[in-house]
Each structure stands twice: as structure tokens, then as C-alpha cells.
Amino acid sequence: MPASTRLRFLLNRARNINVSSVTDRARQAARTHGRSTASVVCDMLWQAGFHGVGFQDYVDYDFAILNRRERATYMTSPFSHQLAQKFDDPAFRHLFHDKAKFNAVFDSFLGREWMTAEPGNADKLEAFGRRKGVLITKEPMGRAGHGVHRYTASRVGDWAGFHRGLLERGETLIEENITQHRDLAAFCAGTVNTTRVTAFFDGHTVHILSMAQKFGRGEVSDQNLAGGFYVMLDERGHAVGAGYDSRGNIYSHHPESGLRVADFQLPMFDEVVAFIDKVARVVPGIRYVGWDIALTPAGPVLVEGNWAAGVYENKPTASGVRTGTKARFLEVVGRP
């Protein structure tokens, strides 16, 4: 990056920095790794300004204990964002932003029925709900688990009122609940535990760049905001260590089931790889995607696709692994 461009970038970051947020994150990292808050703040700012490391990346992936060579192996949020900006055509991003449009495009890969709540179709919603028993509602433009809710049809007494409430709250996408594979349900049956597969389509071949398994805590979503956590998977779908979240917690065992996270093996691994190869070709203008899939007894189904893929990486204090996955990204995608 030219010096003038880097300077403009740094000045922009400085103008928009949330000082209290940075300090809180630095304090958390300093407490965890036995360093002074002041030294961590300085290091975080240096890493953000000159090496493209997000503040939360720094905390989540234990940068406070990594050396320069180890840090350079990690994917970071700013670097991932650059890839998305380069390889995901703005003309098609709306198909991934809007969950209802996404479902329409990828309907054959969802493995479940769905509908949208619209004025005048309360009877259709009632019939759908009574037939399915459990309803998952979503705000079409929600992100990171926001706007996802679960309702039991037998508890709905007034379907017209329920329908009206969904419209008022913007929960207009309704799906049937996914029945997950027993190996996933064993860890947490109350949440559909999804697998994040980050992939790149080069126009000919679909490359899997990284995989992570997310685990919920009984809520409708397995996202961090709902108490969820994740563990990175190796090239054959096996957990590389303990699980972790962005709240500073490490999970050697799942809190609900007691199962050891490091023992997890993604079932139907070959089927997952073949499935990703198919879905990644549907919208070829969106080439860099974080796919969230669920494993059912019949095979993988698609939950959603994220054109801004986000970052899932190794956490040294959870896995003992002090290197990240950036080499794989550079090998396949190159530098933006």
C-alpha cells in the first residue's frame, strides 16, 4: 500500500476509533496474558494501523502472546473485508443481504419449507405453523443472529394477532425448524449447530479455505451474541482443540452436554465438500463467501451465505496452535 494511502487509512481509523471499546478489549487481553493495559493498547493500535489487525481479532486470537512471525499467519477482519470487496460483485450482494431473496435463489439447497408473512396471508401462516409445529422467524436484513426467533405453534392462540405481530416486528421470513444430525444434536440439541465453511470460487474450481464448527447453548441461534462458541476444524473436519467465544471463555467441554469439544468430528464430511461445490456456483459473481450449513440425517442443508465472510481463526490458548489459516487464503486467492 502506498505511503499516502496508508496515511489516509490511519487518519480515518483515528477519527473513528472508539477509545472506550479499545481500552476495554486491551484490558481484557492484558488481564488474560499478564501484560499491562497500556502496552497492549499501544500494540493493538500498531497492529491495527500497520498490519490490518482488527481490535477484536487481537483479543480473540491471543495476539498479545504471539510473535511477529506467528501473527503474520493469521487471517484478520480487515484483510477478509478486502477480499470481499474485490471478489464479491456489488450487483449481486443484495441476494445475500436479504434472507428472503437468498432463500428464493437457493431454495433447492435449503432442505426445508419456508414462506414470507405478508398482509392478508394470516391463514397461510396458520396452516404452515400447524403443519410444522415449530416456526423459525427471521428479519430478512438481520445479521449475526439478530432478529431470529423460535415459536411453538401449539402456544399460538390468536393466529391473526401473531401474524400482525410478525409484520410489526419485521419478522417476515418464516421457516420450518431444521432437524439436525444426531452427532450435532448430541452436543446441544436445543440449537441447530451450524458449520461455517469459507470458500472461494475461481470461476472453475471451488476452494475450501477454512472450516469452523459453531455450537449453541440452547437458544435459537448459535451466534456469539446468543451465547454460542466455535472451534476450528482441520482439513478432514475434526476439531483442532477446545472451543472459544469473543467473551473470553474457553470451552474444553460443552456446558450443556458435557461432551469434549476436541473430540468432535463433522459427520458426512465428503458430502459437505460436494455440497459446498454446488452452492458456491449458483451466484458466480459472489466468489468469496462464508457458508453456514447444517447437517441433517439426510445430509447438509444451507442456512445462509455471507458475502462478507468474517473471520474464524485458531486461538492459541484454546488449541495450542499458534499459527492461523492465512497461508491457505493467499495460496488460493492471493493478495487483494
Quick tags:
11 strands; D-amino Acid Aminotransferase, Chain A, domain 1; alpha+beta; Dna Ligase, domain 1; 4-stranded antiparallel sheet; 37% helix; 18% strand
Adjacency order of strands in the biggest sheet: 7-6-5-10-11
Shape: globular
Straight-line distance between termini: 11 Å
How does the major sheet shape up?
Answer: 5 strands, antiparallel
**How many distinct domains?**
3
Count of individual helical segments = 14
Give the CATH level 1 class of the largest domain.
Answer: Alpha Beta
Helix content: 25-40%
Proportion of residues in extended strands: 15-25%
* Structural class estimated from helices and strands: alpha+beta
- Which parts are unreliable, with pLDDT below 50 for 5 consecutive residues or more? none
User: What is the chain-wise order of helices and strands?
Assistant: HHHHHHHHEHEEHEHEEEEEHEEHH
Average pLDDT, to the nearest integer?
Answer: 93
**Can you tell me the CATH architecture of the largest domain?**
2-Layer Sandwich
What's the quaternary structure here?
single chain
| CATH topology grouping of the largest domain | D-amino Acid Aminotransferase, Chain A, domain 1
Per CATH, the superfamily of the largest domain is ATP-grasp fold, B domain
Q: Care to count the β-strands?
A: 11
Radius of gyration from the alpha-carbon trace, in angstroms: 21 Å
